[in-house]
Amino acid sequence: MTPKAPRPGHRPHDDLQGDPTTTAAARGGGGTGMRVIVPLQGLVQGRGGLVLGSVIPCALFYFLQLYLKRNRGRPDSPRSPPPQGTGLTRTASRMNMSPRGAGRARVASRVAVLLRDSGDYVEERRCSDDGVVDMGLIDNVVFSDLVHKWWVENGKETVLGNGSTIDGIACHWQFDGGLEFKLAVSGFMSRAIHGAVSFDPSQMVPVAGLDAAIETLCFCIADAGNAFIIPTPYNPCLDRDVKWRSGVDIMPVPCRSADNFSISITALDRAFSQAKKRGVKVRGVIISNPSDPLGTLLDRETLYSLLDFVTEKNIHLVCNEVFVGAHGTDQEFVSMAEIVESEDCDRSRVHLVYGLSNDLSLPGYHVGIIYSFNESVVAAAKKFARFTAISYPVQRVLTSLLSDIHSIDKLIEVGRERLRKKFAGFYEGLNRLGMKCMKSSGGSYCWVDMSGLIKPYSEKGELELRDKLLHIANIIVNPGSSCHCIEPGWFRLCPTSLEDDDIPKVMDRFQEVIEACRSRS
Amino acid sequence: MGCFFCWIVVSFQRGIAREIEAQNKWAQRVEMSYFFVLSADDALLRSPSSSRTRTSMRPTLALQVRGGGLGLLMCSHLPRKSVVPAPLSRRAVPIYRPNHSPYYVGLDRVREDPYDRVANPHGVIQLGLSDNKLCLDLIEDWMSKHFESSAIGGGDFAMYQPFDGMPEMKLAMAGFMSKVLGGTLSFDPSNVVLTAGATPAIEILCFCLADHGNAFLVPTPYYPGFDRDMTWRTGVEVIPVHCRSADSFTLSITALDQAFDQAMKKGLKVSGVLISNPSNPVGNLLSRDMLCNLLEFAREKNIHIISDEIFAGSVHGDAEFVSMLEILDLVEYDKGRVHVVYGLSKDLSVAGFRVGAIHSYNEDVLAASKKLTRFSSISSLTQRLLVPMLTDSGFINTFLGTNRDRSRETYKLFVEGLEQLGVNYLDSVAGSYCWVDMGGFMSSYSEKGELELWEKLLEVSKVNATPGSACHCAEPGWFRCCFTTILKDDIPVVMDRINKVAKLCKHAR
User: Fold this and answer.
1) CB distance B375–A171 less than 8 Å?
2) B148, part of any domain
3) In Å, how far are A125, B116, B124, B322 from B501, measured between CA atoms?
4) CATH no. for residue B432?
5) Does B75 share its domain with B110?
6) Domain holding B220: CATH number?
7) H-type helices in B24-135, by residue range?
8) Between A and B, how many CB-CB pairs are < 8 A?
9) Among residues A208, B106, B319, B397, which is most buried (max CB within 10 A)?
């Protein structure tokens, strides 16, 4: 009731104040730019205008909102005791009268976020394949020919089994994956990092893809309205995986090219306190190692300090790791699991996610792994796995592929060698074009600085360059802005989807674009 | 709380010391600045950048003398494990706790000790899960014959795959669906979105059609999994609409209407109705008239309809299955409010392949669910295995026919067994369940009595049937028994076991 009382008193002010505001705005539009903003006007002129100009309109606006809110609530509230028992027909007629009742059935309002997502831009191009070189494709297909060869040799035996019936294939109701499969995966994961850690299959929940793994963890760890701290640039998919259904927010923590985009704990800390000030509860940090899109590996020291940070703040740490794809020659890949094993700390806050199928060059298989040190998270994720179950044939195939130690070791070795070679060739090409890039030592990405080619130096210029690359050179790339990079001009390129012979061709196409950019400027 | 060390910290950098006070960031500053640490404990005399030392220190109090830059720091030596565990989300709490729903307890019991005619004759017989094992031999035959051409052939091993299904698979699925659901109707693959099973299909639809806190009307008894599929992650509520044995558990629009009004009174917004046709536990079909009335009801209330028709191809009785889509084709209607869920788990008995489908005419729903399939997509391998099978119309026709014959036969045997025991049941015409009334064996006519009986069945005679209360049935004493998971020859064993409990119950009285 309190806000109602002063309202009549304020009404005249409303009119009084309303006039100068509009006239000021009108005049501002006419030409005097300084007068556009009323509070500024007050400040500049040194009168009491600051109070009159800003506080009162704000207060009035607040009251107006309150008033509107109350009035909107009013017709709804008497619905609970329906007058004279005509509830049924009344509600029905009301429905028919209301604008939405007359037409189509509406979908949920939360769907709007999904429908607005502009990811389709690239995806449509991707599907209409006409000589487009796709370097935004997140799929790693470097050694898929090797896997295919294995598949041709062993496929039938694997899926249909020799002796065992098809019973398992058809009647599979254990949503969270069979034990054999988990055993094979855990063995494979520790072999990929040379036995530094042994993974416990009981802490593992296989789900249908990396996206599903991250989403499931979000559901387990955070409620709608909570937030995750994520250092930028980050994989654009995270926006979808984290925000779409679980309703969790992302607090981006910008990393800068001046520090080689490395994660700084101070920045994380600042983001944490900012979120706290805004009243947003931060539930964790999501990082990827090797960093996606940078392709750099996180060193031991960073991992330790991250672990310290999350322990200090009492939040979770989700770590997206790539085991086979870490091809760095000079730098050793350190898994977070290794740090957790060695450190006397509260492990239950650390969760790993792993895109198994992508790392194995089997992107169509959609297999992701959640590996958590938290029993409750494992229990919840297992139950959530009913929505993201992996089909039994895939489990069968991967189980036998991963248990075939001889083949898999060769696969890892050849895969790393090929990645190294591919990246080396790609760097060379970029160097020749005079483009700078971050030295990638893991994952399938290359983070390239094309800021010299963009004009204006802003997100707009960056998107223009992306369009140029698409239309002139027929190359799909991910602009840095989609990865939430605060510095324009960086692009994420994925050379792993290219054949070795294609690299020179792609470089020629880049050259075309560079020339086009230069000639225009 | 750990032992306390008294540390005298001499800081030569006055600025750093001041920063300590200003920011109150003890732990970090200790590790970052170069302090000379004077300590009685030699073991702690390490370089501050050593991770080992710093992680075990949790300074709690510091006194600092400004002028000289001499600080006294008291650190408590806290082992990391004593730190409070990071909290999980509120929505995960009810989920990770062990589940006591009889449906899932029963499933777990069978998993521990499954019945096998030869290997484990005293194991638990599974009547609780709708696996269709009657025609697996046909699938196996086909697979071994066509495996090379289906799975291994085809070079696009690592091609980009749209999340909502490969075009070939969508085409094949639309074809199969029109055969099973539509009869004469043919479906457009662009209206079909493929998901990893019907479970995510239902979740995706609930997410798209209802906001957090909105509700769906679901006629009872319903499939126990709906509670999880519809509510867990979407935040949607389920309002059961009770059907009674007096009407042989058929749906009535009046009951729906009442439930709708009650929900409105409670302030809940009802977003839609979810029906399963053929009904999951009961095994009856919705008539043409009922479907028309439902459409009318949905139009009047301006809500959606989700029709779960996953058992459409498993009609073993004499009734004719009518799909919602068929009615929709005949009448003038806003097609955007009807969404059909289908899957291959039941009709093609390939539950392990995890293939489900959403059929909708609503552009928004299609667009949104296509995007959501990134979280539950079908693997390329599975799709490649299934496309040739689904398009092999000769095989599909034989399979559906054989499945129908075998289901009918098994059902007949099962029902005869029940009749001999003098147990009532509701005549089922579709699906793989028999809805059995064991109310006579209960010690008390209540949910408690029903659960007692369920436990006796499970523990004493080792039969896992799903009690009606798990299906939210309003009347106690009904049990859902799946007859397609057992072999024909095992039916007498099941009947013996049920009889054992029956005798036990009569004794107790």
Assistant:
1) no
2) no
3) 64, 21, 14, 39
4) 3.90.1150.10
5) no
6) 3.40.640.10
7) 26-32, 51-55, 93-96, 102-112
8) 314
9) A208
Q: CA B353, CA B383: separation in Å to the nearest integer?
A: 9
| Stretches in chain B below the pLDDT threshold 50 | 1-82
Residue B83 with chain A: CB contacts under 8 Å: 311, 314, 346
Among B151, B199, B210, the residue with its CB nearest the CB of A387 is: B199
- ipTM for this prediction: 0.82
Q: Do B157 and A211 touch (CB under 8 A)?
A: no
SS3 content of chain A, % helix, strand, coil (to 5): 60, 10, 30
Chain A nearest C-alpha distance from B312 (Å):
18
User: What's the mean pLDDT in A13-36?
Assistant: 40
Residues B195, B271, single domain; the answer is yes
pLDDT at position A21 over 90: no
Distance from the Cα of B439 to chain A's closest Cα (Å) equals: 30
Query: Is B366 in the same domain as B410?
Result: no
Residues of chain B neighbouring A343 (CB-CB closer than 8 A) = 51, 55, 80
| B114 DSSP β-pair partners | B124
Whether residues B254 and B348 share a domain: the answer is: yes
The chain A residue lying nearest B92, using CA atoms, is: A220
A475-486: average pLDDT: 89
Mean pLDDT estimate for chain A: 79
Name the pLDDT band for A495 (thresholds 50, 70, 90): confident
Q: Are residues B114 and B62 in the same domain?
A: no
Rg (CA), chain B: 31
Rounded-to-integer distance, Cα B194 and Cα A366, Å:
14
Q: Which of B336, B351, B353 sits opposite A393 (nearest CB)?
A: B353
B242 with B348, same domain? yes
Rounded Cα–Cα distance for residues A270 and A274 (Å): 6
Nearest-Å Rg of the Cα atoms of chain A is 28
Do B381 and A364 count as a contact with CB atoms less than 8 A apart?
yes
- For B206, which residue in chain A has the nearest alpha carbon? A108
Mutation pick from A127, A299, A302, A387 vs chain B, by most beta carbons of B within 10 Å, is A387
pLDDT, one tens digit per residue, over A232-280 is: 999 888 999 999 999 999 999 999 999 889 999 999 999 999 999 999 9
- CB within 8 Å: A364 and B199: no
What local confidence, expressed as pLDDT, does residue B152 receive?
63
Is the domain of B366 the same as that of B236?
A: yes
d(CA A394, CA B465): 31
Contact B387, B172 (CB under 8 A): yes
| B50 occurs within a structural domain | yes
- Residue A129 is predicted with a pLDDT of 52
Chain B neighbors of A137, CB-CB under 8 A? 160
Q: Which one is predicted more confidently, B231 or A119?
A: B231
Structural domain including B12 reads 6-79
In a domain, B94, yes or no: no
Residue A351 confidence (pLDDT) above 70: yes
From chain B, the residues in CB contact with A96 under 8 A are: 300, 302
Q: How many whole angstroms separate alpha carbon A262 and alpha carbon A231?
A: 9
Q: Which residues of B are catalytic?
A: 223, 308, 310, 346
Number of domains in chain B: 3
Residue B428 lies in a domain: yes
CA distance B65 to chain A (A): 26
The last residue of a domain, from among B44, B79, B114: B79
Question: Which pLDDT belongs to residue B361?
Answer: 94
CB-based contacts of A39, cutoff 8 Å, min separation 6: A49, A50, A53, A54
For A365-401, the pLDDT digits (tens) are 889 999 999 999 999 999 999 999 998 888 888 898 9
Q: Does one domain contain both B308 and B445?
A: no
Per residue in A60-81, pLDDT tens?
888 888 888 776 644 443 333 3
